Amino acid sequence: MKKTLWIIIGVVAAIALAVFFLNRTPDTTPDPTPQPDEQEQADEAQQEYDPFEGNVWLNAEGVEMENTPILDKGAIHLPLLELANALNIEVSYDSNTQSIWIGTDQDEDIQESEEELKIYKNNADLTPSNIITLNDEFYISGREIAPLLDIYFYESLFENAVFLVDDSEAPRDGEYVAVRRRDQRGWEPRVNITIENGQITSAEYNEYNQEDQGKLDDPQYIQNWQNTYPDVDPLALVAQLEEQLVSTQSVSEIDVTTGATGSYRNFTELASIIMAQSRVSKIGQEYVDGDYEVYGNPAQNGWTPYITYQISNGTITSFTYDEVNEEGNSKREDEEYINRWRGNFEDVDPIAIIEERERQVLLTQDPNTVDVTTGATSWGRNMKRLTTGSILQAQQSELEQDYETIYVFVGEQGERGDLPQLLITTDNDEMTNVNFSDYRNGVNKKFDEPYLQRWSENYPDVDQLAIVQEMEETFLESQDPDELDAITGATNWRNAFQTLARRALEVIGGAN
């Protein structure tokens, strides 16, 4: 009897448990800890844009950005809201209308919209080509954000810096050119500005086709425009932009021209670049004549950036960018590589893109102002860094002996940003000048007074500059990197010098 009772109790308990689990509401609360694959996806989303970890300067003062600038498509993008706040410029955002208003109240006629974000300034739609929304901020490329915030923008990848300046200091005299990449119809916007005695004396805007023919110089284009827009004179509109810049001496004083907002955007963007370039560019126009060959640091994939250019009478007259492998073969001439590229990116022709940038270097005479925002961005950024670094080193070197060719070999950048470079000149295949320099953020340590002072305090018995000079003279005479082993002091510089010297001998050859 007792056994039967226990069996009945067990059955009832089992039934009760079954009913409990069958009627239990499933727990749909998500696991607060992402699974490994979910975590990887989250990390990828956070790392979609590489941070620009360089310096941001506003009128020679360093700016600490809470929202780190980011890199996208080869361009440095700056946070609009934070930068506007630093410049005391009022900016408002309306999520209902998907609109941002700069310096003016929102137009009540703008209706709610779920379309792309728009940016208005002085009641004109000046929406940039690319806006990145990230962490409640709006990132815009430096080239396009500058005219929106009445500031001038210049970037120097060699200096690892973005420079933002205003009209407080006079620009440097010279004849300047700035260009944008060609649009889908093949037109390249271009601005020419002449500055004399610190004043803008002339400004000219046009757009050019592949044959370098100006759109505004084409009577047929003007006629077609007037047939379509009989109340708008394109020549008068552009002339108004040019005249306002000369008369006001400031891009921020140029009025948005109704009927020509595209020309206004192009003109103010390019003029802003020139206004910054004429104030902060270190390379200027005092170029050292010569035939240059520049070798970047070899990449892990075996390709080494390689640039050749010629400077004659202070002007860059020819320019070519390429990459070579250990056998000296050209990437541009590697049909397999180019075809594979074209197969992956049907709308991007790497050869056409790099040829356009080479031509822009000749037009602008400043690699830092070349537009590298579309396609082959690593090639474009290498081109900017290496060209700027080689021009600066040639300017800073005392080339006392005759030469024909200037070779520059660039080493691996250190953890603290140190970048060694070895410059060697040759005349009739013989070495005539040797200069070793170590840069950090574009500053040559040979001329960095705070750095030299710290060195002197830490190593009072070691004259670093004298040691480097001894290394340069020893290598020039012996052309043997191992001879530098006998020179004590400045060990890191000696090691970098020897590494670059061995690379140089592979290209130039030893003593005859």
TrEMBL record:
Gene3D superfamilies: 3.90.1010.20. Pfam families: Cu_amine_oxidN1 (PF07833). GO terms for molecular function: FMN binding. It comes from the Bacteria. This is FMN-binding domain-containing protein. One of its GO terms (cellular component) is membrane. Residues 37-47 have a biased composition (Acidic residues). Residues 186-278, 302-394, 414-508 form the FMN-binding domain. Residues 27-47 are annotated as: Disordered. InterPro entries: Cu_amine_oxidase-like_N (IPR012854), FMN-bd (IPR007329).
